[in-house]
């Protein structure tokens, strides 16, 4: 239940946007995502909880790209939208690597999934996971751009729905579900700061 709440809090607006867009179109998807985000903000305020940076960037991107989609008079932007969005997300994850706490570590701590106590091993682990997400978004952006340049908008849309959505949830499931196994593997390989030189 804790994992489900974490996923909904951080990715709920994106998930709802994708599902609604697939079945009902762009405008209902934007409306649904905006309503979800507003309700989420109100609930967090009532619970006196803070917004993490990922919630904020997701909300801003959905609003920004949704507005551009609505105002755009041609479909060319839509073809490249996913690639641009993926690059921005990758840049956001990458920028957090230069902060004391990476984005994944910050979100995990705020959700109460890990201790807030500083640890070289924990910092290394979450920086590595954040790096995986950075590589994923950049690779996905490049694939999206290639598809957009070499295929029709219909093919781009289908590829985005199947590959883009599927790969995102697979990586999310691996990140959450196999984090302990990845941690143990890093210890076994002696990649963790505490095990180097043993």
Describe the overall structure.
The protein has 198 residues and is mostly helical. It has two domains: 1-71; 74-198, no CATH class. The protein has helices at residues 2-24, 26-46, 53-71, 76-96, 103-110, 120-150, 153-177, 179-188.
Give the quaternary arrangement of the chains: single chain
N-to-C span? 39 Å
What class would the helix/strand composition place it in?
Answer: mainly alpha
Question: So how many helices?
Answer: 8
- Overall tally of structural domains: 2
Low-confidence stretches: none
User: What portion of the residues fall into strands of 2 or more residues?
Assistant: under 5%
Largest sheet: none
What order do the SSEs take from the amino end to the carboxyl end, as H and E? HHHHHHHH
Summarize it.
By secondary structure, this protein is mostly helical. It contains 8 helices and no strands. The termini are far apart.
Fold blueprint:
Layout: H1 2-24, H2 26-46, H3 53-71, H4 76-96, H5 103-110, H6 120-150, H7 153-177, H8 179-188
Task: For this entry, give a set of tags.
198 residues, mainly alpha, 2 domains, 8 helices, 80% helix, globular
């Amino acid at each position: 239940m804790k994992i489900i709440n974490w996923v909904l809090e951080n990715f709920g607006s994106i998930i709802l946007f994708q599902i609604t867009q697939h079945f009902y179109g762009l405008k209902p998807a934007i409306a649904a995502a905006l309503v979800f985000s507003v309700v989420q903000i109100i609930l967090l305020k009532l619970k006196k909880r803070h917004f993490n940076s990922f919630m904020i960037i997701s909300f801003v991107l959905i609003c920004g790209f949704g507005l551009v989609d609505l105002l755009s008079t041609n479909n060319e932007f839509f073809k490249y939208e996913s690639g641009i969005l993926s690059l921005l997300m990758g840049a956001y994850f990458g920028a957090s690597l230069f902060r004391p706490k990476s984005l994944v570590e910050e979100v995990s701590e705020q959700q109460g999934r890990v201790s807030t106590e500083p640890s070289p091993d924990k910092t290394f682990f979450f920086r590595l996971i954040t790096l995986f997400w950075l590589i994923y978004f950049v690779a996905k952006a490049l694939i999206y751009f290639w598809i957009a340049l070499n295929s029709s908008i219909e093919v781009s849309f289908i590829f985005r729905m199947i590959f883009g959505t599927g790969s995102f949830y697979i990586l999310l499931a691996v990140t959450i579900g196999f984090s302990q196994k990845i941690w143990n593997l890093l210890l076994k390989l002696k990649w963790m700061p505490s095990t180097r030189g043993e």
